[in-house]
Design goal:
The chain has 273 residues and is of the alpha/beta class. Helices cover 39% and strands 14% of the residues. The protein starts with 11 loop residues before the first helix and ends in a 12-residue tail after the last helix.
Length: 273
């Protein structure tokens, strides 16, 4: 992949073709026009306008305070700087409590230039996923550790470690795929579960703390650059790519993308058994 802007815009079909051909792809969060230009110009296929902005930009201790208006603002910023990456946007906490609310919230982000929306949850999202898919709105289903449910989990804990949880997660992933999800994102699950779900699903699977076998990898921009706020514990699955770059931030972005594509990231120390 060229270190310049994408030779042709990245689409859902691009990601599906990468999975079919066994080619991994890179994803990164983005929140503003400047970094959007840098990230997409580095050839990173997917940018996520993540509700993680609540923690890395707004200073909150979770993603829960982020509003749909916040997401619309940052979505507009990222769209202006994009040079051909696929833009995915989070639906924030309680903006998709019902299928009809999901449609309204997703429409607001799609009007700003999102190519796909991401929802956190399991099989209970099937109705919303089906409705969005039928209305032409691509969906990424986020499973495993879902930060909007952090109070229910009792903290940032690896999910799917026992056989019952793992089996349920696979079943629910298949349900969401059947409901029309175009992509699945897995966060903080054991490596073998990440491999199993990736192999069983036809749609691309993006991992963050889900092992090296997923079709793509994603990280929070600030984590990748080693500037995680001091109030946030740096997760095990994070690697700081800035120290090994001789070209500053641009070089770190390219090093990250290359490490994902050649399979050297994530390494065993970034994974959960």
């Amino acid at each position: 992949m060229s270190s310049q802007s994408q030779s042709s815009p990245i689409s859902i079909n691009t990601l599906a073709n990468r999975k079919r051909d066994g080619q991994k792809f890179a994803c990164l969060t983005s929140y503003d026009a400047l970094f959007s230009e840098l990230i997409s110009s580095a050839g990173i296929e997917v940018m996520l306008v993540g509700d993680s902005l609540g923690m890395v930009l707004q200073g909150h201790d979770s993603t829960l305070p982020v509003t749909l208006d916040d997401m619309v603002y940052h979505m507009n910023c990222v769209r202006r700087g994009n040079q051909g990456s696929l833009i995915m946007a989070d639906l924030p906490f309680m903006s998709y409590a019902s299928a009809s609310q999901s449609l309204e919230s997703a429409a607001a982000l799609m009007r700003c230039g999102a190519h796909m929306v991401k929802l956190e949850g399991g099989a209970w999202l099937a109705e919303s996923t089906r409705l969005l898919h039928e209305r032409g709105i691509p969906v990424c289903a986020h499973m495993g550790l879902t930060p909007q449910s952090i109070n229910r989990f009792g903290g940032f804990r690896v999910q799917g470690r026992n056989p019952e949880q793992a089996s349920l997660m696979l079943d629910e992933a298949l349900i969401l795929e059947d409901s029309g999800a175009s992509v699945l994102l897995l966060e903080c699950v054991p490596t073998e579960l990440g491999r199993t779900i990736t192999e069983r699903l036809q749609v691309p699977v993006i991992g963050i703390g889900a092992g090296p076998h997923t079709d793509g990898q994603i990280m929070v921009l600030h984590d990748m650059l080693g500037i995680t706020p001091s109030s946030i514990r740096t997760p095990k699955f994070v690697k700081n790519f800035l120290p090994e770059s001789k070209e500053g931030i641009r070089g770190a972005l390219q090093a990250y993308a290359e490490s994902v594509r050649d399979g050297t990231f994530p390494a065993p120390e970034h994974c959960f058994n």
